[in-house]
Amino acid sequence: MAPPRSRAERQRIRRGGARADAARPSGRQLAIAGFVAVAGVLAFIAFSGGASPAPSSSTPVPGVRQASHVRGSDNAPITIEEWADFQCPACGMFARATEPQVVTTYVSRGQVKIVYRHFAFLGPESQWAAEASECADEEGKFWEFHDRLFASQAGENRGTFSKDNLKRIGDALGLSPSFAACVDSGRHAQRVRDETQAGQRKDVRATPTLFVQEQKLEGAATFDQLKTIIDALIGAR
Amino acid sequence: MRRTVAVVSGIGLVISAYLTWVHYSGDLALCIGVGGCEIVQGSRFAVAGGVPVAVIGLGGYVLIFAIAVLRLRDEAPAWADTAIFALSLAATLYVAYLTYIELFVLGAVCPWCVGVAVCSVTVLAVVSLELLRPWRT
Question: Does this model's pTM top 0.90?
Fold first, then answer.
């Protein structure tokens, strides 16, 4: 019998023939391995609880001004301007994890103020949430509403920030009945659109975008990142 | 077929390494208005049992790729076939669960996660075809 002509053919014969017959796993072995794999995955999903627990609520940040969209003293020498969307999970991470530390460490000492700017670009519920935050601002509760929205995120444009839900959030915060009328009226729609366009003119392309004085940071900056910048600015004064 | 498994699992390895990097990179935790990766990675489902899902994927693909490369050798041990079948089956089941979470709980789909899912299903399909088809004579 003539030897195989090509290397591929020799390999094919080796793998498909002699080696395979001797070394390939039996159906029983594969069935056991499959059972172990299925059981392992199911056990892991069950053991891990499907997911880590959701944060229960945001921690109210003390010592801040209620009026307007400025957190802290107008006289604070350093300004962090945040462009954000209430539906953006990264903005939520920043609001829940980093911002409270900045407030505790710098804002409460009058060194830093945080200015919130709307960049409502992730869909209709971003726009409605931003408008509703302006309605809350009419009653001096912008930041409480801001914190509650970021604590309530659950997917984009899936009804979480429908007008009805926004009214419920307002109710829970003790806002007056005129808040609901304000949400329905859309009277802050143009302001939100104008501010989003102003962000685009300022070259904001993603959220959150922070300007620490003139320094631009894209993404959910960590407290350590901000601390480095803020300490350097304080030291330079 | 073994080469296909090695190539596809290599792609899965690269994507899961990228997702792990994204998970640990604060600079990339931002919303750019397209795709659902920021929602998926920012969700509470991004961590399972205290371990980031991206890291679980990376660990799984390191194993699958290593075994796939081992199987390219003529003298590959028999356990390699059984192991890659079990691992690719486990990977496929887990990505199926994660895809369900993306579609029906988060309402957002991360294209990179879909890439990992496609790699897992492909590896399982090719390995199954290879191991379960009738012997050639």
Answer: no
